[in-house]
Amino acid sequence: MNDTAPKMTGPELDIDKVRSDFPILQRTVHGKPLVYFDTAASAQRPLPVIEAVDNFYRNHNANIHRGVHTLSQEATDHHEQARAKVAGFINAPSDQEIVFTRGATESINLVAYSFLRPRLQPGDEILITWMEHHSNIVPWQFLCEETGASLKVVPMNQRGELEMDALADMLTERVKLLGVVQVSNALGTVNPVAEICAMARKKEIPVLVDGAQATPHQAVDVQALGCDFYCFSGHKMYGPTGIGVLWGRYEHLQAMTPYQGGGEMIRHVTFEKSEFNDAPGKFEAGTPNIAGAIGLGAAVDYLQGLGMDKVAAWEARLLAYGTERLAQVEGFRMIGTAANKAGVMSFVLGDIHANDVGTLVDLHGVAIRTGHHCAMPVVQYFGLPATARASLGIYNTMEEIDTLAEALEKTNAMF
Ligand code: PLP
Question: Which domains can be identified in the chain, with CATH numbers?
């Protein structure tokens, strides 16, 4: 565990210490202190992550896995330690089940092309849910076009919760994979993924869980979830951009063929034929994002230093406060009111367009996201062109929620 990670002083996050770890929170926007409510799009980075990347480039930079010289061996050690840290973070049985990718999107595409495509026949089905991010929709559409399989969508209700009875009915023998998001980036819904995996497992249907919005906010245990694949992105959990993870059961990974060829993923090459490495190497063609992986390892250390239970508890308090406080703003309507929610508050403000809301609160230093949040079917479901979204991170405070509420009130006053 990283020595520089803030220690807990009590049952709660030491929020002042946490905030002091994020240098960007010192800056101002339009002359106001930055209030960052866009963590679901990309989190800010704490010093230990910035320093880990900096330290790598200053002191250990070299290509990995193929050098006998000291720097290459050091770089390899740091890279592989990061893999082990990530494995521990999600309780993977082995670090050989951790494939480094560019992010959740690439991880899903890897499963689509290497795992599912060879298994699909015309008439087969791929099952996803209504609240998936485009990254968990579009790769499957490509496969359906290529193979004659069809994409089926589990409906949700007006609160933004999955219709579990419909899901049970849709898990037929035609389904060759179920893709489900653990925490919706557009609604904040936390899906009952362990229960869903158990339902699918009874029918021997493999499940891919999109954990991009889960790993920053709650402890994840892929063995307890019972899924077959799990993916996430470094930049949403306080790590660098350009690095992400696919976890898969080793028997799946070993049975899959690589979908990119190149250096390092091979064992032996002749012009006639090449033999591939075992997983995870065979999926990591070319020079990987070495500094990114090391930075992700530092992010894991940082979050574990805080304690994921405390992270989840702090964000739950923020969400409860935000839900109540923002409801007092005239015209505020929350989109996504599931009983089990994580720190995402999507909303509309009267009939003011979400982009105008985002632009106007930015003048108060408040960064929120507006649009379809790469989940167009969700906003379409609610009959909206767009929503505004305030998403929470470990550094947010109740006072910042007040600032957002006041900025929304001032926005109202302008229309
Ligand atoms: N899945 C979910 C739920 C997301 O929120 C996101 C990003 O917003 C992604 C997948 C894609 O992540 P990335 O763009 O890092 O690959």
Answer: 15-44+307-413 (3.90.1150.10), 49-305 (3.40.640.10)
